[in-house]
Design the sequence.
């Protein structure tokens, strides 16, 4: 059974008592890369950038994943 994933109102993503990570909106990621938010969502749909879904089905991006992409990883 997979751990319960919770998105808190401050935009953090929790998978356990010791794991909290900030989630970024498509607009925030778009500003980082200098592209349109729709482009960020297309990247997620094609698998170029990892994403998660909130309970309300909105797409969000883990800050650590974005840092890894920025550092060429």
Sequence:
């Amino acid at each position: 059974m997979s751990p319960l994933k919770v998105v808190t109102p401050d935009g953090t993503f929790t998978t356990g008592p010791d794991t909290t990570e900030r989630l970024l909106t498509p607009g925030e990621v778009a500003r980082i890369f200098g592209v349109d938010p729709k482009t960020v969502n297309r990247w997620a749909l094609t698998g170029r950038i990892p994403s998660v879904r909130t309970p309300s089905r909105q797409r969000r991006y883990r800050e650590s994943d974005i840092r890894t992409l920025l550092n060429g990883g």
